[in-house]
Amino acid sequence: MSRFPSDAALKRRSFAMAAAAATAVLALAPLAVHAQAAFPSKPITIIVPFSAGGTTDILARVVGLYMSRDLGQPVVVDNRAGAGGNIGGQAAARSPADGYTLFMGTVGTHAINQSLYKKMPFDPIKDFAPLTRVAMVPNLLVANPSQPFKSVKEMIAYAKAHPGKINFGSSGNGSSIHLSGELFKQMAGVDMQHVPYRGSAPAVSDLLGGQIAIMFDNMPSAIPHVKGGKLRALAVTTAKRSPALPDVPTIAEAGVPGYEATSWFGLLAPAGTPAPVVAKLNASILKALADPEVKKKLAEQGAEPHGEKPEQFAAFIESETLKWGKVVKESGASLD
């Protein structure tokens, strides 16, 4: 008798194995669906491309706290400052596209930098999946109280009488805070010295200490110091006054007609993040922005919540890229 199975026996065995495999796949299918539906199953990280204590950081922590409650997983902030937000942007773009690493983008990282820097470590459009804009934020022109001017008109007069003596800090070269100052210089016809920092928080610290004279800071990080009497608010950079500081005039009202500059912030995921994950994250962020407690906290900081669908945020980023690209080109600004 042959020790080897017959062809018929081999066919029967092959059929049995195929049937068993098919049964196993069917048995595992519900588990795969369940695993996909279980997102998130571990902590989520929001990379913030500026230092702790600045506006980008504040907004990420406020929204992240609500998201952690809604999604049932911790949402932690990872501050990676430097290069006008490009260091954090690069880290986020290279992260796995699984929804567990998000990025708090800004008008700088996603609309200005690609026109400002000769070499970008990531593509703001191709390397990211937009989730939603989070907030629109005015910049606030603030001065150390020791400065000899108490209004925009007085500041302009002082700057013209003392060219280059007023120095203004920013969260980094090419940031909205920096370009707000450059736009002011152009429109007011004054010469001021720019001093870049690795984030808004250290710049504000030096402003409080008198190392720099003024700053066009994002409102959330400046308001506490204004209300505490440590900084003098001269004007807001938006076309309309802010409800958070209704007595503070706009720069246009205060002496520079037509001036307007607004910062915005939004959450993004690495490109290739699965559509169901993007949808779930978008829904969670929109819930956060609609929550009365979150609205109150943002309003106290001078930030206006601005939730939207991913495709709307994507279109907005493209329009902002064109807008600021023209501004950078006309100003002649460029960074290596």
Question: Could you give the topology of this structure?
Answer:
Layout: H1 7-37, E1 44-48, H2 55-71, E2 75-79, H3 86-93, E3 101-106, H4 107-116, E4 128-143, H5 152-161, E5 167-170, H6 176-188, E6 193-196, H7 200-209, E7 214-218, H8 219-227, E8 232-236, H9 251-254, E9 262-270, H10 275-290, H11 292-300, E10 304-305, H12 310-331
Parallel strand pairs: 1-2, 1-3, 5-6, 5-7
Antiparallel strand pairs: 3-9, 4-7, 4-8, 4-9, 4-10
Helix pairs in contact: 2-10, 4-12
Structure explained in plain terms:
- The protein has 336 residues and is α/β, with parallel strands linked by helices.
- Helices cover 47% and strands 18% of the residues.
- Strands 1, 2, 3, 4, 5, 6, 7, 8, 9 and 10 form a 10-stranded mixed β-sheet that branches.
- The protein starts with 6 loop residues before the first helix and ends in a 5-residue tail after the last helix.
